[in-house]
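Recall that a protein's primary structure is simply its ordered list of amino acids. Everything else, from secondary elements to tertiary packing, is in principle encoded there. The following example makes that idea concrete.
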Amino acid sequence: MTIRTILVDDEPLAIQGLRLRLERHEDVEIVETCSNGREAIRSIKTHKPDLVFLDIQMPGFDGFSVIQGLMEVEPPLFVFVTAYSDHAIRAFQAQATDYLMKPVEEQRLADTLERIRQRLAERRGVEEVGRLKEVLAEVAPESMDVDGVEDAHSSNRYEKLINIKDRGQIFRVDVDTIEKIDAAGDYMCIYTGDNTLILRETMKDLEKRLDPRRFQRVHRSTIVNLDLVRQVKPHTNGECFLVLDSGSQVKVSRSYRDVVARFVH
């Protein structure tokens, strides 16, 4: 899988340095470089890349303006590259996949590219399922009524393993072992019953990677693996607690009480 990439920065040395680091990754193909925001918008619309490394502070159109200028097209994945850490929160609010500080560290870049590969695999998987459905609808429309076939293909869209870099190590976590996930700002606390790991990712993005038939929000900042719920304990004001395999309890807020209905039918 080739990652078609555009580099955007008004500093030639910054582009040169990033290009040299990216050359070590054989699946990254740099299709063009741009020195300002207006060039970037034209180039992205023309080349339709998979990934854009985007400087934030540039004369004229800054990095955020570039993203705003692409609202009417299918956007690529964006990684912001900047010398200023105070833009981090706004970068993630703009749905950036990651945020790199200059000068870019090689290991940090490698970690970012691994996340990009995962995201692109998910996106292409969804596209393949869509094309398959179109073909089936044309050549065998009766097959579209078989729930089992659709469910099988749908389940392939979601992660089976999640790579989590925590405390200087990379953990490969089987999603079947995840009991619950708590949001803590831009970080997720992943609980597997006997371990707790920290993942840098938004709740919204992580939800897209997990099968919603199993992983559901039961609170604004909590996701639970429904397969690992062992008991439902009613509470006051329409709330309740879910008791998980490990014995831990999670409160279900009234806004998410429809989740509990799955267990009381």
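The longest strand covers residues 28-34. Residues 3-119 form a domain with the Rossmann fold fold (CATH 3.40.50.2300).
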